[in-house]
Amino acid sequence: MGRQFTKHFTTFPTYEGEKINLRQLRLSDGKDLLTYYNNPMVYRYLDWYGPQDMEMAERVLKHWIEGYEKGYILRFAITEKETDQIIGTIFLTDVTETKGEIGYELSQSYWHQGIMTEALKEVIRIGFEEMGLVRLQAIVCEDNKASQKLLEKVGFIKEGLLRSYECHMVTGECKDMVMNSLINAGK
Ligand SMILES: CC(C)(COP(=O)(O)OP(=O)(O)OC[C@H]1O[C@@H](n2cnc3c(N)ncnc32)[C@H](O)[C@@H]1OP(=O)(O)O)[C@@H](O)C(=O)NCCC(=O)NCCS
């Protein structure tokens, strides 16, 4: 761990897209993070319930923001173009010289508009073109049909089932997960 991200970028990478922008998270995003996570539909396939109060939201944001310099997570704010408010996040983590893992979540008010397709395509481009990774992977709860379809739509291939792989931070319940991967054709 260390310079996984900073060796590729002089400043945190940003993106101005058609539907959304991607930027570095800020501590001031706490209120919006708390608002969209206050919905079981958003966290039902995740391994946590999201931040429970402002203090936790800021603690989590600080951890994610520091992850860029320290090399453990490159987590983007997905923002609404007009307001700059965050409506979700997308991230690369567990990054080595050749591999990385992708994850994401979006406010339910913005589902089914192609937003995560756009964000995911940009993070794949960053991983492959700017960081030179060979393999991206995404591990999805077996029941999470929306996420599975999204991944397949952008080219990920389902590799197999990881039994009792992800255990919930609060309940301890362990779920079977599907491993998906995308290989950099240019490598
Ligand atoms: C998974 C998630 C990120 C999808 O985001 P989204 O912006 O709504 O996805 P898109 O609009 O880009 O849709 C991509 C494709 O996924 C599929 N899809 C999206 N939502 C779906 C749903 N509820 N049921 C079935 N398929 C769905 C569609 O095939 C869609 O492609 P199409 O519109 O061309 O048919 C969003 O539902 C979410 O944040 N869920 C909660 C958090 C989560 O589960 N994160 C993933 C953990 S692995």
Task: Describe this structure as you would to a colleague.
- Helix content is 29%, strand content 32%.
- It is an alpha+beta fold and 187 residues long.
- The chain has an eight-stranded mixed beta sheet with strand order 1-2-3-4-5-6-8-7, sandwiched between helices.
- The protein is globular.
- The chain has a domain at 15-136: 3-Layer(aba) Sandwich (Aminopeptidase).
- β3 (73-80) and β4 form a beta hairpin.
- It is built from five helices and eight strands; from the N terminus they run ββαααβββαβαββ.
- It binds coenzyme A.
CATH topology grouping of one domain: Aminopeptidase
Order of helices and strands: EEHHHEEEHEHEE
Low-confidence stretches: none
Structural class from helices and strands?
A: alpha+beta
Please tell me the CATH architecture of one domain by its name: 3-Layer(aba) Sandwich
Shape: globular
Q: End-to-end span in angstroms?
A: 23 Å
Count of beta strands: 8
Describe the strand arrangement of the main beta sheet, using strand numbers.
Answer: 1-2-3-4-5-6-8-7
What fraction of residues sit in β-strands? 25-35%
Bound ligands, named by name, code or SMILES: coenzyme A
Keywords:
single chain, 187 residues, Aminopeptidase, 8-stranded mixed β-sheet, binds coenzyme A
Topology summary:
Blueprint: E1 15-16, E2 20-24, H1 30-37, H2 40-43, H3 54-70, E3 73-80, E4 86-93, E5 99-106, H4 115-130, E6 135-141, H5 145-153, E7 157-167, E8 174-183
Parallel strand pairs: 5-6
Antiparallel strand pairs: 1-2, 2-3, 3-4, 4-5, 6-8, 7-8
Coenzyme A is lined by residues 42, 45, 103-106, 111-117, 140, 144-147, 149-150, 153.
